[in-house]
Design goal:
The protein is α/β, with parallel strands linked by helices and 434 residues long. It folds into 2 domains: 240 residues, NAD(P)-binding Rossmann-like Domain (Rossmann fold); 172 residues, Lactate dehydrogenase/glycoside hydrolase, family 4, C-terminal (L-2-Hydroxyisocaproate Dehydrogenase, Chain A, domain 2), CATH 3.90.110. 37% of the residues lie in helices and 17% in strands. It has 14 helices and 18 strands. Helix 5 links the parallel strand 6 and strand 7. The chain binds NADPH dihydro-nicotinamide-adenine-dinucleotide phosphate and oxaloacetate ion. The site of oxaloacetate ion has 9 residues, from loops.
């Protein structure tokens, strides 16, 4: 009996799910919770169907028949085709790791509301946690249930990336160990690198072949590099390290200095690593379409105060707030995804940490480096060609490049490139560590 194998947390979730009778008649719902493999290796997949009136009849579909260890009502699958969802797009699967963490707590609700992928895009959320967070993940799933999001068609929680990443079209990799007091950057690179090596392998094995991967967990550039190296069957171009928060921070500071609202600031690139060596580019940035240096006639402020303010913004916020940026990070993940699924406005661009092979800027190949990108809105992107450089910008970019090359040597054991040599030029900080 499957029921006998289930943990108390399972029962709690299933009970709760049955309370979904408030769901409108239009919203036939189908949710799954995949729990860790029990000791005997049998996987439990539970789906919970909920409806109030005129519900489509539950049917034993092929999928249901193959569910194996399902029990009673959890084996039922509703026929979504029979539902009033014909004007909706095909459901997409989105995995989120660190789903019980602070950033996810903001992000998941934005994803489920339609704010990210649009009001006609139903989604399935696949939440990846760990033994320590499984119960918290159930709490997250309960809050998602209680929010009655029409577009949220499935929620699946699990701790095995090979289950959770099955067929995902987007993987938002947020979970990572925070750097604790006294921990060297090399130690963080190794611990988190192992998480991302494992997740890269899992994506390679079971995700959609064109999955787009957004790495948020720090140190995100090198984590993204490790992840893509462990996923050779997925195009390296599909991996991103989140530097959009840095871009947003830079836009805010430029707007403040110029006395304009921040929607007037465009063409802001963050170059390099998501660390204190990152380079917010004021040379190519524009305010009201005019080069920033013509609007803010204060090179010393731009080179020193502005640059350091952006580089250190995360740390200053932690000192005030007592925890790292979570809401604004979630907003920036939304921005980063939307920049890939909607066409970039004419003449503008966005920053993302992407694979350097084929870049037109002379940046060393085989790194994940933040650069200016443009998208047609098809999930893909291209490098921006019309950017200019001066000595200051090149010098700063080289410093961030050197840091990422050193980080790469430090994780060679995780990228299949031999023995790691960890000789970091200086123990640089994450933006939140300063
Ligand atoms: N790129 C960017 O711009 C930014 C990146 N970040 C980074 O995003 C990540 C997540 O931040 P946030 O959501 O605030 O963090 P939280 O601490 O709230 O959540 C992090 C999650 O990471 C998971 N985790 C994975 N491995 C470990 C481990 N060994 N020890 C502890 N937790 C682990 C935990 O989930 P579980 O137990 O389920 O695995 C935890 O819920 C961090 O790495 C942070 O530095 C933050 C802000 C900006
Ligand atoms: O260091 C952290 O965890 C937070 C971070 O990346 C940021 O605020 O940019």
């Amino acid at each position: 009996m499957v029921v006998a194998e289930l943990s108390p947390s399972y029962n709690k979730t299933s009970l709760h799910s049955s309370q979904l009778s408030f769901f409108s008649s239009r919203l036939s719902d189908h949710r799954r919770i995949s729990l860790p493999r029990p000791q005997n290796g049998r996987r439990v997949v539970c789906s919970v169907a909920s409806n109030q009136v005129q519900a489509p009849s539950p049917v034993q579909t092929e999928e249901a028949k193959t569910k194996g260890d399902c029990y009673g009502v959890f084996c039922l699958t509703y026929d979504l085709e029979a539902d009033e969802t014909k004007s909706w797009k095909k459901l997409i699967n989105i995995a989120v790791s660190g789903a019980a963490g602070m950033i996810s707590n903001h992000l998941l609700f934005k994803l489920a509301s339609g704010e990210v992928f649009g009001p006609d895009q139903p989604i399935a959320l696949k939440l990846l946690g760990s033994e320590r967070s499984l119960q918290a993940l159930e709490g997250v799933a309960m809050e998602l249930e209680d929010s009655l999001f029409p577009l949220l068609r499935e929620v699946n929680i699990g701790i095995d990336p090979y289950d959770v990443f099955q067929d995902v079209e987007w993987a938002l990799l947020i979970g990572a160990k925070p750097r604790g007091p006294g921990m060297e950057r090399a130690g963080l690179l190794d611990i988190n690198g192992q998480i991302f090596a494992e997740q890269g392998k899992a994506l390679n094995a079971v995700a959609s072949r064109n999955v787009k991967v957004m790495v948020v967990g720090n140190p995100c550039n090198t984590n993204a590099l490790i992840c893509l190296k462990n996923a050779p069957n997925i195009p390296a171009k599909n991996f991103h390290a989140l530097t959009r928060l840095d871009e947003n921070r830079a836009k805010c500071q430029l707007a403040l200095k110029a006395g304009v609202f921040y929607d007037k600031v465009s063409n802001v690139t963050i170059w390099g690593n998501h660390s204190t060596t990152q380079v917010p580019d004021f040379l190519n940035a524009r305010i009201n379409g005019i080069p920033v240096k013509e609007v803010i006639n204060d090179t010393k402020w731009l080179e020193e105060e502005f640059t350091e303010m952006v580089q250190n913004r995360g740390g200053v916020l932690i000192k005030k707030w007592g925890r790292s940026s979570a809401a604004s990070t979630a907003v920036s993940i939304v921005d980063a995804i939307r920049s890939l699924v909607t066409p970039t406005p004419e003449g503008d661009w966005f920053s993302s940490g992407v694979y350097t092979n084929g870049n037109p800027y002379g940046i060393a190949e085989d790194l994940v480096f933040s650069m200016p990108c443009r998208s047609k809105g098809d999930g893909d992107y291209e490098f921006v060609k019309d950017v200019i450089f001066d000595d200051y910008l090149l010098r700063r970019i080289s410093k961030s490049e050197a840091e990422l090359l050193a980080e790469k040597r430090c994780v060679a054991h995780l990228t299949g490139e031999g023995i790691a040599v960890c000789d970091l030029p200086e123990d640089t900080m994450l933006p939140g560590e300063v």
